[in-house]
Design a protein that fits this description.
By secondary structure, the chain is an alpha+beta fold. Helix content is 52%, strand content 16%. Helix 8 (172-179) packs across helix 9 (185-204).
Length: 557
């Protein structure tokens, strides 16, 4: 049995079924909405309500105890077009020769709304189909699902944005505008009646209900829910990162520059804030703006995911307010980020230059600069820098050519010498090592890397040149001689693995036999001096490591 309610129309009480009252209220709201934008429209709407009250009174006189939805539908049809009623009344009052009253034109403006009556999720695709003159959104839904599968989050984000920004067609007038149909009292009446009939059919026909939640609908909902969940996860992670950044930045501000002695990234952040106090305010603005920038869409998506079907939608004013706040936050975040990055870059450049100067001073000896690893190598191996110029700027670090990570215990990583000419300068150097030797045959061997000609390995005995070997650039080739040298340099290592690594570099082993016929001071080393080389100097980089000398025979020929 249907539920009855009692209403008051112009001082008279009437019993009416609940569904009949909903239809009547919807019709009256649409009529008032239509005429509210026209001069004298309120009077026309009042006339319609008076006419409804008169017809209700007739039904009551006929003994009707509760007005049904069928009787309300009949009353709406009997009322006809309120515009025609208004024109007829005004026609009677218009004097002969007077100007005729204005006729309300039929609005045919097409507007983009979300379609709540034919939706799988938000009604965006159905609304777009009707906006562009289509009737069946199914093919477009299939294409959209396939596109979401291939683009994953991109189209999902677009859909969510459209869902949030595009209003839903709630009134009969908006539904007519969505389909591009004329908007007048007659079409509004028909649209209201059509909506009631569609609702009755949906409730009375279980098959229609099952079709509304068919396979495609379930699939679309699952995919969009997963996309929204993925977006929520990303936005939540960003939000958490911003909150952690705000806490860290605030802690650094409270700790102050005194914390710089602690060392580490936190100390650098404290020093940064003390050195650039104006930048920290831009960072705070950027963090708060970013927080709002992420929080608003995050809340909107979560609300859309778990919103109950019968809950009240967000009002247009609220949406507009959040949109304005989001746009302002976006502008502030963009501006503060650009400003902060530019100022931070200035600070970083100055800081790096300061560090470079300190590093350069710490690693310059007698006017000669080398990176710290090269100095450690020369000091530990007893090498002497005779001459070095053209390498005043810091160069790349040395990389061990024979280090085998699979056998790190048998082949520990060592340091070496790395020289690199500055831009526009030539590499000019000489390093040597001296030791007292007895007569015999000696072998000098090690690893070297050059990118051009002009670097020579030399041996001098008591100021007399004994032998030289000029290096040529090239690629490592496996041979018995090279394998023997590698076995001497790194015993117990995986020589085959090392050889495979060397084939991808410019590192090559070298060896030079030196005959000493009488004892004396043997000096050997590497040089770019023209007195030692035959070819022009073209090399700009030189590296060496594992250099040693061994006596292989007690007598010289």
């Amino acid at each position: 049995m249907k539920k009855n309610i009692t209403i008051n129309l112009f001082g008279q009480l009437y019993n009416i079924d609940e569904d009949a009252y909903e239809l009547l209220e919807k019709y009256q709201k649409n009529i008032r909405s239509y005429f509210s934008r026209r001069e004298g429209g309120e009077e026309v709407a009042d006339d319609v309500e008076h006419r409804v009250a008169e017809l209700f009174a007739e039904l009551k006189e006929q003994g009707v105890e509760a007005i049904t939805i069928e009787q309300v539908e009949s009353i709406i049809n009997r009322i006809g077009d309120p515009q025609e009623m208004e024109e007829a009344e005004e026609g009677e009052e218009t004097a002969p020769g007077a100007m005729p009253p204005p006729v309300y034109g039929e609005g045919t403006t097409r507007r983009f709304f979300r379609d709540p009556e034919d939706r799988m999720l938000g009604g965006v695709i159905s609304g777009a189909t009707k906006y562009f003159g289509g009737t069946d959104p199914l093919p477009w839904r299939i294409l959209f699902v396939l596109a979401v599968i291939f683009t994953w989050t991109a189209l999902g984000l677009v859909y969510l944005v459209l869902w949030a920004l595009i209003p839903e067609a709630r009134t009969a007038e908006e539904r007519l505008q969505m389909r591009g149909e004329p908007v007048n009292p007659s079409t509004i009446r028909d649209e209201v009646m059509r909506g009631v009939k569609a609702t009755q059919d949906f409730v009375a026909n279980p098959r229609v209900q099952s079709q509304a939640t068919g396979c495609l609908g379930i699939m679309v909902k699952v995919i969009l829910f997963l996309v929204m969940g993925f977006v929520v996860l990303i936005l939540g992670s960003i939000l958490l990162t911003i909150l952690i950044s705000m806490i860290t930045f605030g802690a650094a501000a409270v700790a102050g520059v005194e914390s710089a002695s602690w060392g580490g990234p936190f100390a650098e952040l404290c020093e940064f804030q003390s050195q650039m106090p104006d930048v920290k305010w831009w960072i705070w603005i950027g963090l708060f703006s970013g927080l709002i920038l992420v929080a608003i869409p995050l809340v909107g998506i979560v609300r859309a995911m778990f919103r109950k079907p019968n809950s009240e939608p967000m009002s247009v004013a609220t949406k507009a307010t959040f949109t304005i706040i989001w746009v302002i936050a976006f502008g502030l975040a963009l501006f503060s980020t650009i400003t902060g990055v530019m100022r931070a870059k200035t600070f970083t450049d100055k800081y790096n230059e300061k560090q470079r100067v300190v590093y350069h001073q710490e690693n310059t000896r007698n006017g000669v600069f080398l990176d710290d690893s090269s100095w450690r190598y020369l000091d530990s191996e007893g090498w002497k820098v005779v001459r070095l110029s053209g390498t005043d700027e810091a160069s790349d670090s040395f990389d061990d050519p024979l280090y085998d990570s699979d056998n790190s215990e048998d082949c520990p990583e060592v340091e070496g010498l790395h020289l690199e000419a500055d831009e526009g300068k030539n590499l000019d150097f000489e390093i040597q090592k001296s030791l007292t030797v007895s007569p015999g045959v000696y072998k000098i061997q090690g690893m070297r890397r050059v990118d051009g000609q002009g670097i020579t390995l030399y041996a001098v005995l008591d100021s007399s040149l004994v032998k030289t070997q000029e290096f040529e650039p090239g690629v490592f080739m496996s041979s018995e001689e090279n394998s023997r040298i590698l076995e001497d340099l790194v015993p117990n290592a995986n020589i085959k693995a090392i050889e495979r690594n060397l084939m991808q570099t410019q590192w090559m082993p070298f060896s030079m036999i030196v005959e000493v016929k009488k004892g004396g001071l043997l000096s050997y080393g590497f040089s770019t001096a023209s007195s030692f080389r035959r070819n022009p100097l073209t090399a700009r980089e030189f590296s060496t490591a594992y250099v040693n000398i061994m006596r292989i025979s007690g007598t010289a020929k």
